[in-house]
Amino acid sequence: MNAPNADAYLVRDISHYVEGGAWRWAGQHPQMRFFLDTVRHLKFSLDLSITETVFHQTGPMTLSLVINGHPFDRVRYDQPGGQHYEQPVPESLLKAGQENLVEIEPDRVWTSEEDGAKLSIILIRAGFVE
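User: That's the sequence. What structure does it adopt?
Assistant: Structure tokens below.
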């Protein structure tokens, strides 16, 4: 999330401000785009964190992952703190040489009493790996 060109991969509901030099807040409907040369033998990898404040208000959180409009996976987090996710992606969900959209849909968000901002997770790293 702190790469110099990271903003080019952010479609919606992800802060354009890099916090602590390394991470960004995600909102209610975060979406990213990735351009893939190949779609063979790829895994989707995600490093995230759920803060104590968010977890205290939301409780356990389930993230639904959608790739190019197709449900991909659901993962539940029962504890706050740092989390790593990595799963193989079927080639049929991906498009070589084109834009690939990844949506992360949290089942719960924290709403700020100060400004009404809806926040879910902290995004640290996301992408496709071999």
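Residues 6-129 form a domain with the Jelly Rolls fold (CATH 2.60.120.260).
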